[in-house]
Design a protein that fits this description.
- It is built from 2 helices and no strands.
- The protein is an all-alpha fold.
- Helices cover 88% and strands 0% of the residues.
- It is rod-shaped, with a radius of gyration of 33 Å.
- It has 2 domains: 10-41; 55-128.
Length: 136
Amino acid sequence: MNTRIVTLETMQADHRTWLDCLAQWRQDIDRWQAEHESAITRLAEMQKIVVEHGECLEEHARALRQSEEAIASHDREIAKQLKGTSEQPQDVVANQHQDQEGVFHRQQSAHERIKKHHEAVMAQLQALQDTAVSGM
């Protein structure tokens, strides 16, 4: 068995080594504390962004409800056209349909953008939470 001989000089050398390590660790902790403070600030900013994201989702939901109502109203008008009880000319109904088609396609595009963005943000938040709660 190889045991180390401890002398006053080796003890002092150990102390110098240990103090060098502790100084490096202190630098690490100082950097980590600064990064932590920055993270707190960024998380507060992220919270605002996530709240705004929710407001955008609600706006999108309102727009979808309005479209559903407009389609139902338009469909009722088409039914009147088919029964011959409509007072609107058929070309007006057709123009309204064209307008609704444009709205639908814009909403479809917006929905896909929102979906991709939402899924990406939620995945990143989940990854952050999973990492943060895993402990040190």
